[in-house]
Amino acid sequence: MSALIVVDVQWAFDDASFWGRRNNPDCEQNVGRLIEAWRSKGEPIVFVRHDSEEDGSPLSPGRPGNEFKDVVTGSPDLLVTKQVNSAFYGSPDLHEWLRGQSVDHLVICGITTNHCCETTARMAGNLGYDVRFVIDATHTFDMAGPDGQTVSADDLTRATAASLHGEFADVVRTSDVV
Length: 178
Description:
By secondary structure, the chain is of the alpha/beta class.
């Protein structure tokens, strides 16, 4: 059985003054397509929400940015809340739940490509799941490297795809899985 893992598709990530320039304006539309496809197949959907404990974070519980975007529709089969990058370090225990549901295939999408989505995919691969990482149903932001140089969101996405593909996951597009 295959579960869709929708990671951190929350309003806070629309705050460009906080996060900076993003890539992939089609991310949310593709996440919506995946949710619809999974609902039509009757397969499990997991929503993951980042509940930040950092002072001033737009992802803090009780702030509008903590809420899921409108594209995250309906009730999930499981809601995981977390304070770190990986959905496998949230509550309730995602790995335990997936095993209880006899899920062995995961499809991962959400925000951000190179942080919470990539970390979740790496852990899933290490835990033995067959992982599909839907690269066009993720987005990220430009970031400054330790040398002060800005790495574009598109370059970060390509690096994530190269790092994951064939090692931790099969990197695919939305059209490959719907």
